[in-house]
Amino acid sequence: MFPGCGVEDSPCPFPGLASGVLEMRVKEGSKIRNLMGFAMARIGGGGLRQVVFTGSGRAVTKTITCAEIMKRKFGSLHQLTKLQYKVVKEVWESSEGGTSEMTVHRTVPSISILLSKDPLDPQEPGYQPPETLRMCFWARPTRSLTSTYL
Description:
Blueprint: E1 2-7, E2 22-26, H1 32-44, E3 50-56, H2 60-73, E4 78-93, E5 101-116, E6 127-128, H3 145-148
Parallel strand pairs: 2-3
Antiparallel strand pairs: 1-4, 3-5, 4-5, 4-6
């Protein structure tokens, strides 16, 4: 039996986005290096102000990784995250040459992450403000720890 898959596409969870937003659809087999090279060239060139990373199923963790890499490279990005479920329809056909087939509907988790150079609504559920230097765990402390205990 060999499956044939179909995904019922859900609409963009961010209503009111401009038409020029870059949408990166992250798949299970996507290479992070290729995704990030393309996205960073587009948003770093100054032409784009927003990018949406979308992934479902086994690609959810890869989608989050892409967003975190982008935030680290372009420090002051606002983030809006939406979680939802997508319906995946798998059609299993008989390998014996018969006409019998079995259809399975599965719901898989999906994530969409909007990163924006422009401010977003902080009251929107899933909003994260840009990280400041004080919020970063690798920031240098203001005073030496050894001088505190001497």
